[in-house]
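Reply to dn_fold:

You asked what the input looked like. This is it:
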Amino acid sequence: MDYYNGNQIDGTLGKFTWPYYWWEAGAAWGSLIDYWFYTGDTTYNQIVTDALLANVGPNNDYMPESEATTEGNDDQAFWGFAVMAAAERNFTSPPYGQPQWRELSESVFWSMAERWDMSTCNGGLRWQIFESNNGYDYKNTIANAGLFLLAARLARYTGNLAYVDWAERIWNWIEGVGLLDTEHYYLYDGASVTDNCSLITTYQWSYNAACFLAGSAYLYNFTQSSLWGNRTQNILNGIQVFFDSDSGGVMFEVACELTEKCNTDMRSFKAYLSRFMGLTAILAPWTYDRIYTHLVNTVVNGVAQSCTGGTDGVTCGTSWLINGWDNTAGLGQQMSALETVQNLLINQVPAPYTGSILPSSESSESSDTGDPAGDEIVSLLLIMLLGASWWITM
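and this is what came back:
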């Protein structure tokens, strides 16, 4: 939280300090909602609530005037993920008269869905919302992956089959245009509308695969359809590309990390892979052992030895493949470590709730689906997480 001054006189409520863009703030609040849910630590809950409500915009769809010239579809989606998590985790409701978490989630989805663009490439969302922005002529996977994941989560939460129809539309478009490689189940970056999306940019980013993995798992959990079960399994097979066998199975960002070319945004991507793998493991239980092994290997062989840097001795680096801290630091690095560690606690909490099944209070009994790492490791990590300065720079 050293990167946040939004609750200070010279800060902007809900926004982190430069060089962190607005979208990553939405992502960080989602991380802290899960942090509360996994650990029971309420330290940051009011800060999270204030941040989420300060950025809803005039139409309650996370299109605030402060971002009117820069916001992209993917930016909006990450704030949508945060309020969707708040609904699914039964996070403390906003005060009376304020928009509620489900309402905000649905407003984000329909705001984005209205921009589905049939004028080029036979459909899909553009990267940017505003024509004046660089990237408006590009249809990228993360914008469409964001819409897909919101559709899947809202389908399960509301029971409304219209969201399933939208998820199918998005999947079919991604596959049809070639952004999903159905031989290896890799998700590629995007394509330009200037050539009708005929030339694919083949960078692989972990958060694209993560969104389609979790979205498929949500849809499987809701529909019990073998179609979505098979898609979940196929994407799970494809994400193997983000785990390095030479280092004991440590997670890494394949498109930029080995060349040390990851920018500020990219340094947070592993956070979302960990978060959405955790959700997948619970919603599609046959994936649990494989996903939990990925998380354990990454923490034991990567995160634990990386988060030893800085003057405090607990700052986390970008790459977890090297021996020790790599001399980088930032919000994305801390968030990635936090998400990877806290998702080792997925078997200690209930699955995401639905609108028809919510607990009577914020505390719920833990579910236990087994723990390959052993109760001792989980207990130790819980102590570390409750001492949040270890994982979030304070």
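The chain is about 45% helix and 5% strand.
Hope that clears it up.
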